[in-house]
């Protein structure tokens, strides 16, 4: 299912499919190769339709752009209104993120489990991602972060590729104060257009 026309995005999906070809799992996947494809995709801001670049006055938006027919990967546009931010969250699959418009601040966390309580500790000051920058998450390299729009007066947009149908995966949000983590399913802002019929 592909919602975007145009050769840049089409080429990106082809490169993702090639990277995943013949692999049963993401264990031996080359995230750096996908990162290079992502870098090429976000180095031109002329392909994302306005429908998937629209901010919401209150909430950051996640629009599904493509999901693999076997749910091996999905591609999403994240649209940040001025000052909007995620909670601290994990992904449970690999993710490659490229900034298409504006800038984001990314703060990484480590989790420390004590019985059923998952404490998180910041890895340090947030890093800034500007247009063309690419970042990675995964359960092996570090999977927990908090992301915000670096601007409080304009929209920022990033493109995310994940190793699964990210809007349907049960994952977790955390608090910096160490309360038990909560399960969530992010869904998609364009869920209505995804319904059959
Ligand atoms: Fe994230």
User: Please, what is the CATH homologous superfamily?
Assistant: Jelly Rolls
| Amino-to-carboxy terminus distance | 14 Å
Helix-strand makeup class: alpha+beta
Helical fraction = 10-25%
DSSP E strands, number = 12
Characterize the structure shown:
The chain has 197 residues and is an alpha+beta fold. The protein has one domain (7-190): Sandwich (Jelly Rolls), CATH 2.60.120.10. Helix content is 15%, strand content 35%. The protein contains three helices and twelve strands; from the N terminus they run H-H-E-E-E-E-E-E-E-E-E-E-E-E-H. The strands form three sheets. The chain has a five-stranded antiparallel β-sheet with strand order 1-2-10-4-8, with helices on one face. Strands 5, 6, 7 and 9 form a four-stranded antiparallel β-sheet that branches. Helix 1 packs antiparallel against helix 2. The longest helix is centred in the N-terminal third of the chain and has 14 residues, at 7-20. It is globular, with a radius of gyration of 16 Å. The two termini are 14 Å apart. The relative contact order is 0.21. The protein binds fe (ii) ion. Residues 89, 91, 145, 147 line the site of fe (ii) ion (FE2). Fe (ii) ion is lined by residues 89, 91, 145, 147.
